[in-house]
Design a protein that fits this description.
Layout lengths: L18 H7 L10 E6 L3 E5 L5 H8 L2 H13 L7 E6 L1 H6 L1 H4 L1 H6 L2 E6 L4 E3 L5 E4 L7 E4 L1 E5 L2 E3 L3 H19 L2 H5 L2 E3 L2 E7 L18 E5 L10 E5 L13 H9 L3 H23 L1 E3 L6 E6 L2 E7 L6 E3 L21 E3 L11 E2 L6 E2 L14 E3 L28
Length: 408
Amino acid sequence: MTEGHPGFLAGNGRIGFSLPDYRAFAPEQGRTTRLEWVAVRREHGHLALGEGLTEEDHAAWSLSAEERATFAARLTDRGLDPAGYMLMPSHPWQAGHRLPITFAPDIARGDLVPLGAGGDEMRPQQSLRTFFNRTRAGAPYVKVALAIQNMGFLRGLSPHYMRDTPAINDWLAALVAGDAEFSDQGFRVARERAAIGYTGDAYHRTPATNPHRKMLAALWRENPVARLAPGERAFTMAALLHRDHEGRSVAAAMRRASGLPPEQWLAGYLRAYLRPLVHLLLAHDVVVMPHGENLILRVREQQVVGAFYKDIGEEMAVVGRRPRRRAWSGCGPWCRGRRRRCRSSPTSSTGCCDTSPGSSTPTGSCPPTGSGAGSRACSTSTRPTTPASPAVSPAMSISAPAPSPTPA
């Protein structure tokens, strides 16, 4: 954290932090802080949840019972109905420098209601804007918007991208879980399970996008600690690059402590890190952003035995052309699953016109639709993406956070 980026001549980091801010929020200080919370009026925000996660589950996962009760009471005391609001975390710097100034009209309208600090002690990670919960074991990582320039970019979060983030994470996690090659190499995904964004401000009504649209958003990511096997520990892959004052690297120290020959130790590391990424591309046409902060290594007896990949929603893409399987409303079961678009509702479960993949020969029956006796109910439809994939947000140059120095 104090040596700069290996690929930048100048780190140009933390632009916007004062010296007191640096002392309070820089991860190398080793301090904890408490996130500020804001109530967002439901009609001006969007909460996206991953598969199988309800809003009640998310509330219990992201906040303690005491925090939920406290925030609900603060809304009630102002004459507001807690059911009409969603709760969003904010970086303390953001809450002090952006919320009361940039979003003063929204606060005046009651669309945003500052609620004060939460009760959990949070430790900032390498990206500055992601936090590890030091109070509640198993609580998720929290990633928030931060209008600080770090490594060349303003670290905002787009509510637009947050809408798709949980679905994209679920899709990639299912792909990885369904391929034995990944499990054989110990490769897993740390999913972003929930995301929230505020869009009721004036900046979301301008014709062109602007950085102020990325000031109020957050996401919650799975904590991988519970998924570690006995005897395992985890840390960011970027730590392997660190050298001490005598020039000795973490990677070399781990190799010596493991007792393995260098070739064997390196082969294990590449098997856990590089091989799954190559397989992801060659077998599934998926590319990601696998830099050191986006991977959490699983280590046992000083040897790398697996990895968690994270920061998925804004930094992955599907390349190549693959047909997309989709169930179209109005199509019978025969038509669904055959990657064909239904033009109108067929009269029977086998009434869709279809063509076999790679062929123009119709299969099945086609009931007439409209006045033309030869019109067909369904037509071919292919999409350039991997099977059952959601709409994928464009890859963005946003550095991902690193896990906590303690467990992940």
